[in-house]
Design a protein that fits this description.
about 400 residues, mainly beta, six-stranded antiparallel beta sheet, five-stranded mixed beta sheet, 2 helices
Length: about 400
């Protein structure tokens, strides 16, 4: 003889805090999916206020004294509302299934429940926990009790037989399991090396007062990168449920460049090369995540354009600029050399400096600033007039001419 009485699933709820199933909003029917001989389960459906569910049948179960049969004439079932331990209670918050089965090994065990389904006005859901059970006889498979609450109609319980037993096979299930659902993974943009994450997990089920904690808590400042946040809820019966989700703080925004309002002026127009750097014309570079950046460290000059030809002797309109070549010399970094000269008969020379800046995450911003060589220092000559690209050094010059090999010949 084998007798197994077990408790499984969530902790037993405090009786005074249970919600009677008959008072559960919208609950109309309960379906018992019973599997016989391993075939497709059959549904047995009873209204929540039916005699079957609000009455426990006296012993012995059998013809005329059963709610339904599994194997006709051999496996009578009795289903009723109960407490968590299977004690009959028409105002209970749990569902108990009891059965008799008169076959021992080598036959399989009885009480073969695939799922217990609650049918509401707006939908259905399965029972979610086994609170207690009784397995009897030599063909019981007690570890199968979880099959009744796994949401799979193809698996079922096998709780043994009642041959030479004084009790019944029994399975008691609950429907108000504590559940927690974390938010979807969060991706936040970095500001000052982090971001504040606000979130609220969804909690359902459970009994009485529920306590929710998250680590780190909502409203915390999360650092750059991904952090796993874990939330746990506990109810008054010590049920608990947890979930986790990632909070990723990313830096995807490029730095913001501010150009100085006043142009850099090269003076005097003595035909000499002068070294210039980006900080001469850039007011600031600010990364929203990392803060201010040094433009001379994070910037690279990509090309420089002049609105005057490299040498006036190369063009038809000769107005005199000193007959010099290589007026633009790039360093490959944040500085360059520009020739301090302009056409004597022109309106000043304008150099347009194109550059990019990068933050520590590789985000980049392209920008430009202007430097000039004015015709003279009188007010009408300042600023110099930009006549468009006539000479260019660097990448992306397009149709604008680069250094001419014939210059100086």
């Amino acid at each position: 003889m084998l007798l197994l009485v077990g408790l499984a699933g969530c902790a037993t709820s405090v009786e005074s805090e249970e919600t009677p199933l008959r008072q559960m909003a919208g609950l109309q029917y309960i379906t018992f999916w019973e599997t016989t001989n391993g075939v497709q389960p059959l549904p047995f459906v009873f209204a929540i206020d039916s005699t079957e569910l609000t009455t426990r049948r006296s012993d012995p179960l059998g013809d005329g004294n059963q709610d339904f049969y599994g194997v006709e004439g051999r496996e009578p079932y009795d289903v009723f509302l109960s407490n968590a331990d299977g004690t009959f209670n028409p105002n209970g918050g749990y569902i108990t299934i009891e059965a008799g089965w008169n076959r021992t090994l080598p036959d399989g065990g009885g009480l073969n429940i695939a799922e217990v389904q609650l049918n509401f006005v707006g939908g259905t859901r399965y029972a979610c926990e086994v609170t207690s059970f009784t397995a009897l006889g030599n063909n019981a498979v007690p570890q199968s009790v979880g099959n009744a609450v796994d949401g799979n109609l193809q698996t079922y319980t096998v709780l043994g037989n009642t041959v030479d037993q004084t009790g019944r096979l029994r399975l008691t299930v609950g429907v108000n399991c504590l559940r927690i659902e974390c938010p979807a993974p969060m991706t936040l943009e970095c500001v000052n090396w982090g971001a504040v994450a606000n979130f609220t997990p969804t909690v359902t089920g459970g009994w009485g007062e529920r306590s929710l904690t998250c680590q780190p808590p909502s409203g915390s400042r999360f650092p750059l990168g991904c952090t796993t946040d874990t939330c746990t809820v506990t109810d008054s019966t010590h049920q608990s449920a947890s979930c986790s989700f990632p909070v990723c703080v990313v830096d995807t925004r490029p730095p913001v460049v501010a150009i100085k309002p006043t142009r850099v002026s090269l003076w005097a127009p003595n035909h000499h090369l002068q070294r210039v750097k980006l900080s001469d014309c850039v007011e600031s570079v600010v990364d929203e995540c990392g803060g201010p950046l040094d433009v001379d460290t994070v910037g690279t000059i990509t090309r420089i354009e002049s609105d005057e030809a490299e040498d006036d002797s190369l063009v038809d309109d000769v107005r005199g600029d000193g007959n010099t070549c290589k007026d633009i010399v790039l360093s490959g970094s944040s500085w360059a050399e520009l020739r301090s000269e302009r056409l004597g008969g022109g309106d000043g020379r304008v150099y347009t400096v194109h550059f990019t800046v990068h933050d520590t995450r590789g985000n980049s911003t392209a920008s430009s600033c202007k430097m000039q060589v004015v015709h003279d220092q009188s007010a009408p000559s300042n600023p110099a007039v930009d006549g468009g690209c006539s000479y260019c050094e660097g990448s992306g010059c397009g149709s604008c001419p680069s250094a001419n090999p014939a210059c100086g010949e």
